[in-house]
Amino acid sequence: MERTRETGMLVAACALALVAGCGGEDGGAGSGTGTVQIFVEPEDTIPEGLEPGTGEENIADGWRVTYDRFLVTIGNVRAARSDAQETLSDPSVFVLDLKNAPATRYVIAEFEGVSAVRWDRFGFDLPNAREGVKSLSPTSEDDVALMVENGYSVFFEGSIEKEGGESCPRGEACVPAEKVRFSWGLSAGTSFDDCATEDELTGFSVPTGGTIAVKPTIHGDHWFFNNITAGAEITKRYAQYIADSDLDGDGETTIDELKEVKVAEVFGQDYNLAGALGVIETAYDYVVAQARTLGDFQGDGECPTRAVLP
Asked: What are the residue ranges spanned by the domains of the chain?
């Protein structure tokens, strides 16, 4: 990890004036130092799944979602101050098992001796996995190998279930489908920047002599959204398209099937798919576009500046 400091008269003046203080929460030149720990945290939808219902975070069309496995590639954390030439960075990249994340979450970076001010710029990547990625327990070697061999940024598998559920592929006659499985790996590498809390506070503040926990948060419900979010998650959640994309009716919707299903065949008037990184022509394109929105901040905060990574 690397930390670069502003040099010159301002830093010298602060060094001489530490007793009296020099700046503070307003983003001034610093009144001491603290520690920054970067935690990766899964949203509850990953270990707990999603329930059907009418609540804001329920699946509105009656399906229950369960994940059996959920892996992400994450790292290259960075922070900066817009009022000074001071940055924090750690290029390390990890493959992490979010389904079985420890209660203490994953600490992927720590910076000590950081100016105790507001760092108003924070970002991280969900890159496509490459050789040399790290991992943290309980992530297994098999998890890492799967991600690296396929160049995945995210891999997840599980099922949707609904009593009386049906599959209606391409508007044809519906058939019973009370459980449909999925196992999807995506090379949807994306960078996330300008992260802000749900209250729209950008970045984070470092306490003098203390530690701030900064939490990139990975959500597990975005491929059920009926729009492409770039701010507050004002959306409804639907899962019927997964059942309708099971073209051969074998109880599993595959990546190959998603690539065959055109947008108009499964996404109706309830969907607004504008604003995606890339063109959405198929159900697969939709899933990839939603994977490029997974990176959130401090729970439900957003990182609205996104870019495709190779």
From this structure: 40-76+89-101+122-191+213-308
